Amino acid sequence: MQLSELKDNMTKTIEATQRSFNTLRTGRASAALLDRITVEYYGVDTPLKSLANISTPDSSTIMIQPFDRGSMNTIERAISMSDLGLTPSNDGQNIRLNIPPLTKERRQELVKTASKLAEEGKVALRNIRRDAIDDVRKQEKNSDISEDEARSLQDDIQKVTDEFTKKIDELLKVKEKDIMTV
Fold it and tell me: Which of helix, strand or coil describes residue 38?
C-alpha cells in the first residue's frame, strides 16, 4: 500500500465521519438529519431521499414531499421508528417534522453520540494503519524492502495516521460546539 493510497483511504474515512456527524440534530432543521432513514418501499429498504423531496422551509421545520403519495404512511412509520425522536405530521400532501429546541440533557446525549461516531472513525483509521503496516512487514519479510526502509515507512504511516486522527478530533470539536450552541 502506497502512502497516497493510505491517504485516500483515510480521507474517505474522514468524509464518512463527517457525514455521520451531519445526521446528528443540532436544534436547527437540516435535510441531512434524514440521511440515515430508510423506508421499506415495495419490499426493498430505500433511502428516504430517493422517495421524496426534502426541504427546510424554516429553521425549525423539515418538509418531506413524497414522489408517490401511497408511500406516505410507510415514510411516517420509518421516521417514527428511527432514533431521531421526532413525530411526523401528515397533511395529506406533505409530511412535516417540527424540530423542537434541544434541552441541555439532550444536547449532552448528542455530544456523547458525536464522540462515539468520532471514535468509530478513529477505529477505522487504525484499521487502515494496521493493514498498511502489515503490508510493509510482508514486503520486508519477502526481502522486497530493507529493514531501514520498512521502519521509515512505518514511521511515515504513523505520522499520516496521527494527522488524520487530529482531523477527526477537530471535526468533533466543531460538532460539539454546534450542538451545545443554543
Answer: strand
* pLDDT (tens digit per residue) in 65-92: 998 888 888 888 888 888 777 788 888 8
**In Å, what is the CA distance from 93 to each residue of 75, 98, 101, 112, 160?**
12, 16, 26, 36, 50
Q: Are 83 and 110 in contact (CB under 8 A)?
A: no
Global pTM reads: 0.71
Can you count the helices (H) and strands (E) in the chain? 5, 6
**Under CATH, to which class is 3-21+103-180 assigned?**
mainly alpha
Q: Quick one: angle between helices 104-141 and 147-180, nearest 10?
A: 170
97 by DSSP, 3-state: which? Answer: strand
Query: What does the block give as the cell for 91?
Result: 397533511
CA distances to 29, 108, 119 from 169, rounded to whole Å, are: 25, 17, 9
Cell 421508528 appears where? 81
Judge: domain 28-98, CATH 1.10.530.10.
no
Phi/psi of residue 82, nearest 5 degrees = -75, 175
